[in-house]
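so i finally got all the pieces together for this one. its two components total, 399 residues if u count the protein bits. some of the lines might not be protein, just check the labels. i wanna see the whole assembly predicted at once instead of chain by chain like last time, that was a mess tbh
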Amino acid sequence: MPTYTDMTRCDGCGECVDICPSDIMHIDPVYRRSYNIEPNFCWECYSCVKACPQHAIDVRGYADFAPLGHKVRVRREPEKGSISWKIRYRDGRLKEFTFPIRTTPWGSVKAAQDYEKPDLNALNSQMLAHEPAALHIDALPALKAKA
Amino acid sequence: MLTINPFAALTNFFSPLVLQVYLALMTLAVIAGTLFDVYHKGSAKFFTQRREHSQAAATRPLSSGETFSLLAETIAEAAVSGEFCKWPRRASHLLMMYGFFLYVVTTVVLVFGYPGAAHPPAILPALWTIGASMILAGGLWFFFFLRVNVAHDGDSSFHLGRADLFVGSLIAGAAFGLIWHCLQTAYANAAAAWIVFGLYIFFTTLLFLSVPWSKFAHMFFKPAVAFQRRVEEANGSSDLPSPSTENYIVRS
């Protein structure tokens, strides 16, 4: 089911243009709102649907089955670290699911170079870099060395 | 310049009635243009259908008090341009919105309330100038740095399209209005001032006559859409999932 933009919701921020791995989300030259320039090439990855802060992007099936009335919508809440889905089935049933997507605030992941350089002696340790502190636990079990 | 009525000197050349009729015609153009836009796009029909679908699918009918509260929330959001997700877009929109409001209101008051008075209450011409300057600041910021096809699609900053009709004529109208006011204050009856005045009137007329083809009418229908969206989320008919009740951010 390829994506399309609801122009009454889109504020033209361009997040979908930046995130689309297929480079098919572009800015409409007349209305300056995003649109899918080639639905046939959509990977249906939902990246733009999840990234859109206005919930302006939706997916729809092709004409042979779209009129059957099903719907899939998504709400990403980075401030809560969750993503929720609402599925409307063809017989009218509704189901909602919420999943955690991360446990740390958005944008808080440190790059490798932001960590303190490990001691070379750590190569002899069974721990990986920054363990166990990076796992937010006090200690990890270690294999006993053979006598 | 900040205390002089920019329209006063014009009454030496033609009757104040000319400007008053011009403003009335521009108001009619906006009303007619918006109604044509609504008819042409079928937006009234679309919103009526959407409202009916929403009412039919509502799982929790709203009381009139709740509806009024949602209306107040929508107005409060529109007043601070809360629908924008990025602060630069929001700041530039606020500058243009309140600048345009000041500019239009003071123009109407000066033309109808003080025709021919070179020195009306000083606050009026000052607000007119501040309003036009705010439009210019917000508009140029948006035009050269924030337009999405410039910032994200990599177009030239000078690329012009139909989507620029509203913001382009707004910026040009405010810019030529300010230049004309400066010129006529410094050099009375200079030929350059009349040329710039012609450009000012041209772009201002373009702004108001181009409503069916520009996004001028967004100031009327955007709040209506935002209100309907709030109603759908409140009465349970929205297709969007409900906001998560759990916060999974447990570490800093």
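Residues 35 and 74 of chain A are 18 Å apart (CA to CA).
The helical segments of chain A are 15-19, 47-51.
anyway lmk what u think
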